[in-house]
Amino acid sequence: MEKKRVLVIDDEETIRDLLQIFLEENECEAVTEGVAEDGLAQLRTNSFDLVLLDIMLGDTDGLQVLQQIKKISPDISVIMITGNHDIELAQECLANGATDYISKPFDFDYLRESVLVTILV
What we know:
Number of domains: 1
CATH class: Alpha Beta
Largest sheet: 5 strands, parallel
Shape: globular
Strand content: 25-35%
Helix content: 40-55%
Oligomer: single chain
Number of helices: 5
Order of helices and strands: EHEHEEEHEHEH
Number of strands: 7
Structural class: alpha/beta
Strand order of the largest sheet: 2-1-3-6-7
Distance between the termini: 15 Å
Radius of gyration: 13 Å
């Protein structure tokens, strides 16, 4: 069976490394990028099953990046990740096409369930 490909876009290197290890332990191929434009370039040239996208990318708004992702690949699933626990922001992300919204620090059982359910659908 071919591994599912997941793109992680997060400006925190520690989070990217942690998610890469987590994804690889769950039989996924992970590609990580720390800058929104690099992540979007990956989407333009490669195929992915899922994007894990940080809502706060340094000085870039993850919600705007979500909208750009949906223009490039309308059917791709995107799970937003953030340290911000704002319910209105979560609703806005979901209204703009995000599949799920996961807060940091991660509950890895929930993250595993969300990722696996999303890529197996």
